[in-house]
Structures are given as C-alpha cells and as structure tokens.
C-alpha cells in the first residue's frame, strides 16, 4: 500500500517526472508502466477480442488523483477522463478532508439482483406464494450454476417475488439476490436467472420472458462521509454557500441533473480507468436518485465547529475479476496503482472520489464561479489546438485568460507573434 497519497507539487512535475514518481510509489513494472505511458502499444489482438469490428483504439488522458485517505488508508487514484479540472479538483477536495481523517466508508455488501419476468400467469398472487414455498430449492439450484462463486462465499442468498401492473397486464417478477464477491456479477446472475426460468414457468404456469440483472443495485450501496475543513474551503461563508448550492439541487431537478453529473465526473473517471462498466454505474446512480423524485446523491451539513460535513449514498456495482478489468493492460495497471484487494474496497474509493468531486464543484460555484479554474485548463487546451507546444502553451494560455478571449483564432495569432 502507498504510505502517503499527499504528494506536494505533483501537478508541477513534468510527465516524465510524474511517471518516475509513480513507479517509485507503486512498484509498477516497466511493462505495466509502458501500457500507461504509451497506450498505442497495447496489443491490438487483446482489443480485437474485447468488442466486435475493432479498427483501433481511443485514448483518454489518465491522471492520478492524490491526497485520498479512505478508512485510514492512503490511495493514489487513477482517473481516465477528457474533461479539464476534474482530477485537480478531486485531489484538492481530498486534501481538505485530511485534517479530519479523510473519508470514512461502509457498504451493504457486493449484492446484485437478477430479475425473471413471467407473464400470462393464471393466478399471480397465488403463484408468488408457490415460488416462496420453494425458495430454498430454487436457491440451491441457482448455486449449482456457479460452484466457484459459492466456494468463495458468494452465490444466491435469497429470493423475493413481486406482482406488478403493466400496460399488458400483471407480471410476476421473481428476483434472485446474489452475493457476487469480487465480480461485478452480470454474467453470474444472468446465468443463474436463465437456469431458473424453466422451474419458474413450471411453478407458475406462466411464460418467462426476460432473465437479466438489474442495474438499480440498491442492495449494493456504498455510504461515505467526510469532514471538509472550513478554513481550507475558504471560511464559513463558503461552507454556507456550498450547503445552499446543495439545497438548490435537492429542490430543483434541473439543477440536480448537473449536480449529480458532477458527482459522476469523478466516479466515471475511476470506473473507466479500472475497466469497469461506467454505463451500469450511471444507470444505477441516476435510477437510485430518482426513486422518490430526482434528488441529490450527496448531502451536506455543518458540524459544531463550522466545518462542512459531506456524505454520499450510491449503488456501486464494480468488480476486480472478469471483463476488461483483467484483460486490458491499462485497467490492470490502474488496479495495481490503487492497491485495492476487494470489490468493496474499490467501491469505497470510487464513492469517495464522487463526494470529493462534488464538494469541489460546489465550492467553485459558491466561492468563485465554476469557470475560473476550468477556463485556465481550457485555455491550455485551446493553445495546444492552435499548435503551441512546450512553454508556449502556458504563455499563450495566460495571455488569453488576461484578455478574457479564449479562442483558437486568438491563440493562433499569439503563437505567430511568439514565433516571430
């Protein structure tokens, strides 16, 4: 494990210096580092087996968020994202939690839900009871489909049944509750659901249609809280401003959509870096937020000392085995950088990043406006697009910011002036 994720001045180092520092801290091999530093060299044969019709690869910047301490353990957090300011903002917000112990996380376990949809059931409420009477038999049969998962302490644990109304009449929904251990679990739960389908048809006298997991993983929740130091945030006025900004999101779905998107900026970046399914995480997060009217995934309060206390509650169906996490070399290297040992530990870190990112965004809105820090990074991108390289990027970006004219055309003009 990394001893201290507090790396002063990491952003000031050159790329090569950051790479050297990362190697020292994490013990990555030269081969593992190569996949990060030159992703164009990733074996196309590997990519060709991941999806269909492969013609190339799309490279995202991979940054390292620093300062993260979760449950008294320090982490360097890889984040793959194209949006400026996200990595810096998350790192800065994490720094503000360190005087109070960082982030503290707990969870409900790595539990997923598989749904079996049955239609044309003659007596659905009676059939519901019949399924529950055979619950243990059905659970045992489901577990026969994945003895390895059961061996490691996972497997089907429970069954629940619901009768729902629909546009085509009542449906009987059998839900298999499965502990997926260190896997995200889609393949395991889908296999179990498909195996149970004929038995459900026999019990109910109906017709089974869909047999698939739910991405509303509300039995796989992560809860994280942190105290953000008031002085480091900028004082009591900033703390009050952040709480007011959060209250706005709670009260208005138009604001809340952007508020939750800011949370997912941090979460998705880590999910992508580790080869997990960010679409599943997005679906689970937003559907969870919408259960009782669309609301914020985070909450903010003030403690007796005037510090900001933030918390997040979110479904987090991520894994360390299977899929791209084990196949893609960049994902493997990212997991090694994180040094997490279980899917639950990974979920804790990811949720902490989401909370940090949200707190940083709200602080920017409350204290100085979101554009100040964001536009500084955007100006560098514009300068680079105009053809600037090396130190010219910073010179041109600084001039455009002072002029409040961050445009490619202006960057080209400034570049021509410098080259003369």
Question: What characteristics describe this protein?
Answer:
420 residues, 3-hydroxy-3-methylglutaryl-coenzyme A Reductase, Chain A, domain 2, Alpha-Beta Plaits, Helicase, Ruva Protein, domain 3, 3 domains, 10 strands, globular
Structural overview:
This protein is α+β, with helices and mostly antiparallel strands and 420 residues long. The protein folds into three domains: 10-104 and 222-369, Alpha-Beta Complex (3-hydroxy-3-methylglutaryl-coenzyme A Reductase, Chain A, domain 2), CATH 3.90.770.10; 111-213, Hydroxymethylglutaryl-CoA reductase, class I/II, NAD/NADP-binding domain (Alpha-Beta Plaits, 2-Layer Sandwich); 373-419, Helicase, Ruva Protein, domain 3 (Orthogonal Bundle), CATH 1.10.8. Helices cover 50% and strands 19% of the residues. It contains 18 helices and ten strands. It has helices at residues 15-26, 30-37, 44-48, 86-95, 124-133, 135-143, 147-151, 186-204, 230-233, 236-251, 253-273, 278-289, 324-327, 329-338, 343-367, 371-385, 391-403, 408-419, and strands spanning 62-70, 73-80, 103-107, 111-119, 155-164, 171-179, 207-213, 221-228, 298-302, 308-315. It has a four-stranded antiparallel β-sheet with strand order 3-8-10-9. It has a four-stranded antiparallel β-sheet with strand order 5-6-4-7. A two-stranded antiparallel ribbon has the order 1-2. The chain is globular and about 85 Å long.
Give a short overview.
The protein is an alpha+beta fold and 420 residues long. The chain has helices at 15-26, 30-37, 44-48, 86-95, 124-133, 135-143, 147-151, 186-204, 230-233, 236-251, 253-273, 278-289, 324-327, 329-338, 343-367, 371-385, 391-403, 408-419; strands at 62-70, 73-80, 103-107, 111-119, 155-164, 171-179, 207-213, 221-228, 298-302, 308-315. It folds into 3 domains: 10-104 and 222-369, 3-hydroxy-3-methylglutaryl-coenzyme A Reductase, Chain A, domain 2 (Alpha-Beta Complex), CATH 3.90.770.10; 111-213, Hydroxymethylglutaryl-CoA reductase, class I/II, NAD/NADP-binding domain (Alpha-Beta Plaits, 2-Layer Sandwich); 373-419, Helicase, Ruva Protein, domain 3 (Orthogonal Bundle).
